Amino acid sequence: MKSGVSTEMTRLYARARHGQRVAGLAGMFVSALSSGSGAYLAAKSEREIYEAEFARERGAVENNEIEARELLSLTHQVRGLSIEGADHFVGHLAEKKDKVIEALSRERLHISEEVSTSPGSPPPPAQSLPPSGPSSRC
Question: What average pLDDT does this structure show over 74-80?
Answer without folding.
Answer: 88
